[in-house]
Each structure stands twice: as C-alpha cells, then as structure tokens.
Amino acid sequence: MAGARQMVDALIRERRGSSIAATAAMGGFALVVGLALKAVKGSGPASDRDASAEAPGPHASPTPFDHADVGEDEARLMLRAMVAATMADGLLDAAERKRLDAAMAAAGIGDDGRAWLEKELADPAGIDQLADPVKTAEQAARIYAAARLAIDLDTLQERQFLKMLAEALDVPSEAVARVEQELAA
C-alpha cells in the first residue's frame, strides 16, 4: 500500500483531545521516530539486534526527529502495528472508526489504501508477523511506539497486546517506561 508514511502521520495527528495532538503538530511520523529514539537513548543492549544496528551515515541529521531513513516498508509495518493495537480488544469502536476515517481522508488515501486498511482491520497482523521483520533495536522501538501511540490503554486486552509486542520485539522495559513517561508528559 502506497502512502503508509502519510497514514501513520495522519493517524497520530488525529489523536485529538490528547496531549499527543499538540506534539504531533511537528508531524505524527516524526513524533513516532522521536519518541522511539528517546525510549532507546541511554538504555543498555537489549538483544542481539543492538549489535546489528546500523551506525548513522555521513549525512545523518543532528535532529532526533529525522525520519528520512525510515522507509515505506517500515512505515507499513508501523501502520500494521497500529491497526493490530487498535483491534487488540476485538472491536473497532465508533471513536476509533471516526479517527481512522479522518486519517484516511487527511492522508489522501484512495480506494486501494482503504481496501488494504479494511483487510487489515478484518484480519490484523499477529505479534510474530510484526516482530519477525524487525532487525534493530531502533526499529523495534519505532514499531512499539507506533502501536502505543495508536491507542488509549483502556482495556486489559490492549495492555496485554502491548506487553506481548514489547517482549516479541525485545524492547527493554526501561524503553517501554520511557515511552509511557513521554506520553504522560
């Protein structure tokens, strides 16, 4: 599906009524990347993924919100994680549906994108499908942050989903706590 980055960005921006909406003014996609960076910054090695993390290239930006290196495939994985988190409790409530529809409109998602999203909603990705393609600790943190930003933790199923996702992605508990601290701020 083309436009995954725009859809992630629009979904984060549609979180009206939360502290996230004001922060997302800089860009929802950048917010995910920055939140993930803050989560892993200063945390020790979590897994073998850290050893394979790529060093920043010669054109690396000094800003923690630089998301130029996050490709469309990873953005699609973020989007799949967001949908799976949204569907963790088994239903799409009216507020969630409204937010998805508004995000699709804001991102200019066409019929193909809408069909893809409806398919994902009907059969959300499982934890392993989300974790298996992830190769670095930074990617893992970005996928986790996207899933966390997609929902308000108001059900046991959503909390359990995020806990299992963090474990499957090998996101350290300290990084998970930093994400929660940033969202509470």
UniProtKB/TrEMBL annotation:
Sorted UniProt keywords: Membrane, Transmembrane, Transmembrane helix
Tagged with keyword Transmembrane helix: yes
InterPro entries, alphabetized: TerB-like, YebE
CDD domains xrefs: terB_like_YebE
Superkingdom field: Bacteria
Region (Disordered): 44-68
Residue spans crossing the bilayer: 20-40
Record's keyword annotation contains Transmembrane: yes
Record protein name field: DUF533 domain-containing protein
Organism for this UniProt entry: Methylobacterium trifolii
